[in-house]
């Protein structure tokens, strides 16, 4: 069954964006995944197609209305068990583990917030899982949704040319990725590490693992807490 993504947004023209190119675009053409960009404004009932209103209690900005957004969610998810996600800076940080879990399912429904946010009542009533791609604020959820979908689609079966390539990347196994090199052998006085051209595959794998541990310890020591290695390994 093809992976189905439904994105609820005020800017459907932003999709599929970069996902229409390269491996993801080719996978879409082959029918390995599909994308439906739903215009939230289509579910407004007044003649101005109003989707937002002022915050209860006062304050700056506007808030997406729960009734309009709920109708959009219900339309996209009728008789549908796909996870309902809301891209939000206050959500749980996205991890590779969560990406793998989503990729193993039949698809996702993603709500892209705008303005000051989404009425809390629709988050609770429609069971939206808030997901964050980092500790910063974007102008809307669309770029975050594209990043989430990119992470998912690339690990769907058959999307990458070599399925093994995804097993040796950053965050797979809890470590950052080891350094990469390619020809020429010497460039601006810098040589490829001799071990990588030795032909000794066991030694190469050991070197790559040690380099991954070293880089993780230097740049993301927090990851070592959950990595399946010893800190002094």
Q: What general outline do the C-alpha atoms trace?
A: elongated
Helix content: 25-40%
- The strand line-up of the biggest sheet is 2-1-6-5-7
Q: What is the domain total for the residues?
A: 2
CATH class term of the largest domain: Alpha Beta
Give the amount of beta strand, in percent. 15-25%
Q: CATH-wise, what's the superfamily of the largest domain? A: SPOUT methyltransferase, trefoil knot domain
CATH topology (fold) name of the largest domain: Alpha/beta knot
Helical element count?
6
- Structural class assignment: alpha/beta
Q: What is the multimeric organization of the chains shown? A: single chain
Parts with pLDDT < 50 across at least 5 consecutive residues: none
Determine Rg (CA atoms, Å): 22 Å
How many strands, what sense, and barrel or not for the largest sheet?
A: 5 strands, parallel
Short description:
Belongs to the RNA methyltransferase TrmD family. With 233 residues, the protein is of the alpha/beta class. The chain is 27% helix and 18% strand.
Q: Could you explain how this protein is built, in words?
A:
This protein is of the alpha/beta class. The protein folds into two domains: 3-155, SPOUT methyltransferase, trefoil knot domain (Alpha/beta knot, 3-Layer(aba) Sandwich); 168-232, Trp Operon Repressor, Chain A (Orthogonal Bundle). The chain is 27% helix and 18% strand. It has six helices and nine strands; from the N terminus they run E-H-E-E-E-H-E-H-E-H-E-H-E-E-H. The chain has a five-stranded parallel β-sheet, with helices on both faces. Strands 3-4 form a two-stranded antiparallel sheet. A two-stranded antiparallel sheet has the order 8-9. Helix 3 (96-103) links the parallel strand 5 and strand 6. Helix 3 crosses helix 5 (142-153). It is elongated, with a radius of gyration of 22 Å. The two termini are 42 Å apart. The model has no long low-confidence stretch (mean pLDDT 93).
